Amino acid sequence: MKVNWQGVFPALTTQFHTDQSLDLAGANRHLEKLLQSGVHGIIMLGTVGENCSLEYLEKLEVLRAAVKQVAGRVPVLTGVAECSTSLACRFAVDAQKAGADGLMVLPAMVYKSDPRETIHHFRAVAKATDLPILCYNNPVSYGVDITPAMFAELADEPRFVAIKESSENVRRITDLKN
């Protein structure tokens, strides 16, 4: 599915049973309510979706269940929030195989990369997959800021198609547009 990057794309939380096992039926009920409400796409495994807390295979299980439930009605994006660039690339490939329509890529978690390393991380993930990428900048939470100058440097990569800007700097949006 080609992603239309306009509209509302909520990030869903991962549902669990009381024993901490995945509640995929609960997740599907939540997903169905959002679809019935008219969302234009969904983001699974965002950082409020427990991306960094789930085991690798659990993440793919959540993603596959969402892709199956959505059944092509709207685009399904998935967060890519891994502790290393190589693992982010691996997950991007596996997410594409699982049926994701796009990726929401974050800088590598835990390690606070410098601009050169951050740019390398995003470019490496883009090379690993054919999926379109929403670059997620949230320096307040993750300690890595993707500045407008860095986005300008990344602008030649056609897979980077959207930015989720959460820097708390309201002037940043104007800077990005410029």
For the report, how would you describe the main beta sheet?
5 strands, parallel
Strand content: 5-15%
Count the beta strands.
5
Overall pLDDT metric:
94
Oligomeric status: single chain
The CA-CA distance between the termini, in Å, is 30 Å
Provide the succession of SSEs.
Answer: HEHEHEHEHHEH
As a whole number of angstroms, the C-alpha radius of gyration is 16 Å
Low-pLDDT stretches are: none
**Structural class of the secondary structure composition?**
alpha/beta
Shape: globular
**What is the share of helical residues?**
40-55%
**What's the number of helices?**
7
Read across the widest sheet, the strand sequence of neighbours is 1-2-3-4-5
A few lines on this structure:
With 178 residues, the chain is an alpha/beta fold.
Describe the 3D structure:
The chain is α/β, with parallel strands linked by helices. 40% of the residues lie in helices and 13% in strands. The chain has 7 helices and 5 strands, in the order H-E-H-E-H-E-H-E-H-H-E-H. The chain has helices at residues 24-36, 56-70, 85-97, 115-128, 139-142, 148-154, 172-177; strands at residues 42-44, 76-80, 102-105, 133-137, 160-165. Strands 1-2-3-4-5 form a 5-stranded parallel sheet, covered by helices on one side. Helix 4 (115-128) links the parallel strand 3 (102-105) and strand 4 (133-137). Helix 1 (24-36) crosses helix 2 and helix 3 (85-97) packs parallel to helix 4 (115-128). The two termini are 30 Å apart.
